Prior knowledge:
The chain is of the alpha/beta class. It folds into three domains: 5-294, Rossmann fold (3-Layer(aba) Sandwich), CATH 3.40.50; 297-418, Up-down Bundle (Four Helix Bundle (Hemerythrin (Met), subunit A)), CATH 1.20.120.640; 436-481, no CATH class. The chain is 42% helix and 14% strand. The chain has helices at 40-58, 77-82, 88-101, 113-130, 150-162, 192-196, 241-253, 268-283, 314-319, 324-332, 344-362, 375-385, 390-402, 409-418, 431-449, 453-465; strands spanning 5-8, 13-16, 24-29, 62-67, 166-168, 174-176, 217-222, 237-239, 258-264, 288-294, 297-299, 302-303, 340-342, 468-473, 476-481. The chain has a four-stranded parallel sheet with strand order 4-3-9-10, with helices on both faces. The chain has a four-stranded antiparallel sheet with strand order 5-6-7-8. Strand 3, helix 1 (40-58) and strand 4 form a beta-alpha-beta unit. The two termini are 48 Å apart. 45% of the residues are buried. The model is unreliable at 424-431 (pLDDT under 50). Residues 30, 245, 271 line the site of zinc ion.
Amino acid sequence: MTPIRFYNTLTNQLEDFAPIDPPVVRMYNCGPTVYDFAHIGNFRAFVFADLLRRFLEFTGHEVRQVMNITDVGHMTEDQLADGGGQDKMELAAQRLKAAKKSGVADVENPDDPFAVARYFEKAFIDDARALRLKIADDEAPRRPRATEHVKQMIAMIEKLVAADHAYVAGDGAVYYDVSSFPQYGKLSGNTLDKLAHGAGGRVSETDTAGKRNPHDFLLWKPDAKHLMKWDSPWGWGYPGWHIECSAMSMSALGVETLDIHTGGEDNIFPHHECEIAQSCGATGKAFARYWMHTRFLMVEGEKMSKSKGNFYTVRDLLKRGVDPAALRLELMRTHYRSNMNFTMKGLEDAHRMVERWRAAAAGVDAQSVAAGDSDVERDFVAALSDDLNISGALGAINKWLNDSPDDLSPLVRMNSVLGVLEAAELETETSGDDAAIDAKVQQMADARAAKDWAASDAIRDELTAAGIEVQISKQGITWRRKMTLD
Ligand SMILES: [Zn+2]
């Protein structure tokens, strides 16, 4: 069998993959922050993690996958320094309150930040299930919540303080002392030396208040007024963002050294660099052996942004009638280390491929699908073994289908890695919300038909306040969720 090789961001090279404790593979994926619906850029990274898991399972590994749920509403250090930033969970709560008032979101108590977080966590799981991410069907401990691991975070911060990797600053906050960790910068290339000469982002005067080094980062912020707060040796407050992943990954996977850690490329610095500093600082051991990062997603050649109107969540697209199988394939079929250009044309191409596979797989008796050793499967596995060369793998399938093979059971087996054919319609409890929005939009259409523009505008304002964007055209009125906060 071809050896499996992955590109490791930590060493900047392709390496043969060998887990510490075969056949078990312990993998941690930086997961969603649940104060909003996850967008397709987020989901590109999650679909990649799912493909990686399924491929490793197909090749005989037992994958223990953990994906965290960040449910603490952090302010950035910039916002903290400015003193004016508003907590993102608080913003989400305000939006949800408006949405509840007009009947378009069913959240029990939008004043409760925990309820807000649960609402978006549920939405994430619904979306993940529609795209057939296995993590959505795992037991809840595989999706640890930050708010339920604060004890572990505090314990780790105490260890870091005791080991002189962290200190309590004049303002009472606890910071990690980056100068205490000589390997800082190994993952991202942003060594302290380079950072001192201006690489790795701006550092303002105010950022440095209380810190010994401008690049020291926050572990604990005392803030008795914060929306979500916990008691700690440094007073009531909340943990820094980076410490969450260090504490949760080790706690949920039960080891100090992970096999694989994944995330989007925007996580490399500072998030993952800081995770390494914290984890190695606390345990004295390597944190994760293979670091794998997905590149950015663009939409129609442009950066995805709300102002450009090219910002999509998974549910936006499914609501427009996009086949979830096609969406999954589209998010997966660009190599993870290439920037992906998401286009409607690409989505249509993916859909045609899905339809072709569906037709071919329809004739296969699922009972007859035993492990196989066909040429196409060997080519498929060889391609994916080469740093998840997805276009090679898809090419092998399509080329084989062109020859109209008699036995189509390999397609069903290969699909267990791709997970495309079982992707189904979005089933969501929040779809009750959609019916309420549809009803409002109908009222609006009725008001317009009666030339009652004031009534139509009033409904539109109500929907806008609830984060629903309404578009009126000759064809009628359409709507989409615009509940994006930043
Ligand atoms: Zn993380």
